[in-house]
Amino acid sequence: MEYQTFSTYRLNKVIRKSDFQKVSVEYHNAYRKKLLKDATESVRGNFSDVTNPLSSFKLDGNQVYKIDKHHHRLIERKLTSNLNSISGKKAPNRANIIENLKLLLMEDVPYRIYRWDITKFFESFDNEEVESFINQIPNLSPQSKRLLGSILAKHKALGGTGSPRGLSLSSILTELMMCEFDSKISAHPDTFFYARYVDDIIIITSANESNQRFKHSAEIILPKGLKFNELKSKESPIIGKSPTARKQTDKFVYSFEYLGYKIS
User: Fold this and answer.
1) Which residue among 131, 177, 193, 255 has the highest number of C-beta atoms inside a 10 angstrom radius?
2) Rounded distance between C-alpha atoms, residue 46 and residue 30, angstroms
3) Least-confidence region, from 89-103, 116-130, 158-172, 214-228
4) CA gyration radius, the chain
């Protein structure tokens, strides 16, 4: 796990060109050294150099969190990098999801569309479940677990619940916590297509399943604390012509929105 350490060498790897935008060229080296020194000291002290490395603000009705100090942002980047390195997960590509969805919906077979939205995705994860999950992540270094736990404790001290919305490490952490749900829904015998982009879920099924039982079984396996938003979640009737109905000339049109696209 040497690559997961928060040494000067490893922290230096997450420094970006944009970190020096407001720094004169002649001071780049000195600024880099100070960043790395402050970051390594903060790691050793478990963020004890400040009361709380997080602050928050309201955006579109949500409480969004950010890390104020530059050297603390290096630590968060390294934590995110460590989580990414063990997850094996790639961030979903919106364009690929839509393209694959479009091709499937053109198939001349009966199907049903489920559109589910999760209420307050980041905030709704159960605090104890998140902490327990972090401690059980295989191949994540003890130091990474300690620092993640500390950020969550600081987030909780500000009145936050779940995982702090706005931090890059929250995106990969919640993705890891959704892995079991994603796998089980994808493996359902009636699932043709499954995609999730953060809290936005779409599923295409064979329409052979009982829609009520299908949704209920999905609700049961959601991580603790998460619920579907009934106002934003919807499902279609059975779409597509059966062999006995192909002689009919009437058509049924169903429209829905997903990831900013309107699909009919």
Assistant:
1) 177
2) 24
3) 89-103
4) 23
